[in-house]
């Protein structure tokens, strides 16, 4: 295995994972120097009872169904066992200790930056990690986008959201082209998001 394998981390609740997530991950693999992308599934926040949020292991299973045929992708449930609420800095510290032969890079949208100063140890994140950033609809320019740790990638803007997909399933709309085939089949079999 190569030393310092460059690994992109895409964090999210993936409720559910959709083609937009996969397009961003694929774009970053093809147009940056990343060698692999990990989908880091965020656990359920115990303080927020959201009936629309599937249990974390079901969301992880949907991610696995979506990426099972692509060796460049991997799912991660690393945050399931970490103290909650999970902070990105803690997750990265843990991952770095567990996988010392990887260089972790955060894949994020431009929309994180207006509130980025509220993240735990945000200065430390910028000091020790690189951010590969893709444009998000409606995001303003932000001074942190000029930070030396931040690289902007001109990925196509994807306006698909998990919220839109959940609402559409509830309204009995056909979402077959918005979700990977096996993900959609499983959601239908399990009647997820119908209520």
Describe the structure concisely.
With 195 residues, the protein is α/β, with parallel strands linked by helices.
Which features does this protein show?
195 residues; alpha/beta; Rossmann fold; 6-stranded parallel sheet; 6 helices; 6 strands; 32% helix; globular
What does this structure look like?
This protein has 195 residues and is of the alpha/beta class. It has a single domain (5-159), classed as Rossmann fold (3-Layer(aba) Sandwich), CATH 3.40.50.620. The chain is 32% helix and 17% strand. The protein has six helices and six strands, in the order E-H-E-H-E-H-E-H-E-E-H-H. Helix 4 (122-128) links the parallel strand 4 and strand 5 (130-134). The protein starts with a strand and ends in a 5-residue tail after the last helix. The model has no long low-confidence stretch (mean pLDDT 92).
Helix and strand sequence: EHEHEHEHEEHH
Rg (CA only): 17 Å
Describe the global form: globular
Q: What is the assigned CATH homologous superfamily?
A: HUPs
User: How many strands appear in the DSSP assignment?
Assistant: 6
What separation lies between the terminal Cα atoms? Answer: 46 Å
Largest sheet: 6 strands, parallel
CATH architecture: 3-Layer(aba) Sandwich
Low-confidence parts, pLDDT < 50 over ≥5 residues? Answer: none
Share in helix: 25-40%
Strand content: 15-25%
Which secondary structure elements does this structure contain, and how are they paired or packed?
Blueprint: E1 5-12, H1 19-31, E2 36-41, H2 56-67, E3 73-76, H3 88-98, E4 102-109, H4 122-128, E5 130-134, E6 150-152, H5 162-170, H6 181-190
Parallel strand pairs: 1-2, 1-4, 2-3, 4-5, 5-6
């Amino acid at each position: 295995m190569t030393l310092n394998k460059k690994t992109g981390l895409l964090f999210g609740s993936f409720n559910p994972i959709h083609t937009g997530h996969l397009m961003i991950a694929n774009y970053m693999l093809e147009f940056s120097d990343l060698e692999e992308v990990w989908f880091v599934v965020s656990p359920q926040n115990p303080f927020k009872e959201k009936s629309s949020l599937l249990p974390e292991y079901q969301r992880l299973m949907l991610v696995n169904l979506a990426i099972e045929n692509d060796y460049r992708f991997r799912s991660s449930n690393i945050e399931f066992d970490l103290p909650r609420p999970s902070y990105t800095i803690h997750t990265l510290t843990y991952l770095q200790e567990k996988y010392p032969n990887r260089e972790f890079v955060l894949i994020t949208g431009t929309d994180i930056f207006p509130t980025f100063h509220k993240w735990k140890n945000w200065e430390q994140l910028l000091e020790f990690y690189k951010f590969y950033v893709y444009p998000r609809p409606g995001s303003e320019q932000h001074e942190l986008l000029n930070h030396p740790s931040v690289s902007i990638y001109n990925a196509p803007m994807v306006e698909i959201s998990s919220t839109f997909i959940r609402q559409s399933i509830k309204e009995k709309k056909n979402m077959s082209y918005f979700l990977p085939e096996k993900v959609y089949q499983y959601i239908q079999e399990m009647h997820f998001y119908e209520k």
